[in-house]
Amino acid sequence: MSIGVLVVDDSATMRGLIAAALKRDPDIEVLGFANDPIEAREQIKKLNPDVVTLDVEMPKMNGIEFLEKIMRLRPTPVVMVSTLTQAGADVTLAALELGAVDCIGKPVGGVTAQEAFSELTAKVKAAARARVKPYSGPAAPVERDSDYRASDCVLAIGSSTGGVEALMTILATFPATCPPTVITQHMPATFTKSFAARLDKISGAHVTEAKDGDRLVPGHVYLAPGGDLHMEVAGVSQPVIRLRAGEPVNGHRPSVDVLFESMAKLHRPTVGVILTGMGRDGAAGLLTMRQSGARTLGQDESSSVVYGMPRVAFEIGAVERQYGLSRMGPAILNLCSAADHQRTA
Fold first, then answer.
1. Contact at 8 Å (CB) between 298 and 285?
2. Among 53, 139, 150, 244, which is 20 to 30 Å from 250 by CA?
């Protein structure tokens, strides 16, 4: 059974390029087009698409306003098609918070449409399987764990599709004394700095985009920069961030597997967590962490937007225990505290 897609963009050229990319996959059918949110609303009612690709900047109503209406009234899997600019990153992150499943950048500079949209069909297919929930307004303030104290434990988190919501939910619970935390989230290069800034505003921890040579210290969270480098953690007495060149692993750079594999070599208590995402990146690395003595957690199926990465990790025995998103933050902090206590006992 084919996946029906509605393409929403105010540029006829861009609608054509998106449609051409989607039509290369025989499992996807382009049901129709809309050049603004008003027309899109009627097309959604008429065509009942499985997935909508949505432009961020459109006339009559911007993509964010329209997305909020969709997610409140008729929750539908949406893939945002964004300009890879600072403004485009900020708006797209807001869209992902509202419930958009994923995003993809428009071709810019010397990048061809075929290169820019090379992952579009995979993202649309993942979106068609995603669990989308009605948007019920901004999340209520979260009570942070004020009892948690600085730990020698190092925490590593890997996520992909659906990871924006998951990471925001988890880091909102982190206090200023949280364990040093490294995160690899699959995301375009121009997005990670903006995402780190958004996380920093809602968390008790200090969240930054990671830089090569950053020392891991309690109360800090380091987000891998998107783009051309993998992120690793290295060092004996003082762990530091290492950003290195390398071929994509599992189709990703930075790769969660690369981060987790480096974590398994640290001589200190560690905790690994794998969250929502399509594919299998991170599963093998998390297993290596567990085999090295680390504690490991995975997001459960019911709370994952796409239960791909955590499912593979669970099935190969990399995950000690699964938690829903609402319980994951406290579970992580408890495990980090327990891991540190076991090391020092």
1. no
2. 53
Q: Which CATH class is domain 3-129?
A: alpha beta
The pLDDT tens digits of the residues spanning 113-165 come to 888 899 999 999 999 999 998 887 776 667 776 677 777 899 999 999 999 99
In DSSP terms, which residues pair with 215 in a beta bridge? 240
Catalytic residue ranges: 160, 186, 281
Class of the CATH-defined domain 154-344: alpha beta
**Rounded to 5 degrees, what are φ and ψ at 220?**
-120, 145
H or E element at residue 181: strand 181-185
**Same topology for domains 3-129 and 154-344, yes or no?**
yes
Q: How many residues would you count in the chain?
A: 345
Q: Is the pLDDT of residue 343 over 60?
A: no
State the angle between helix axes of 120-129 and 12-23 in degrees (0 to 180), rounded to the nearest 10. 80
Q: Where are the domains of the chain?
A: 3-129, 154-344
Instruction: Specify the pairing of strand 270-274 against strand 295-299.
Output: parallel
- Residue 166's alpha-carbon distances to 39, 51, 160, in angstroms, are 32, 21, 10
**Can you say whether residue 264 is alpha, beta or left, with left for phi > 0 and alpha for psi between -120 and 50 degrees?**
alpha
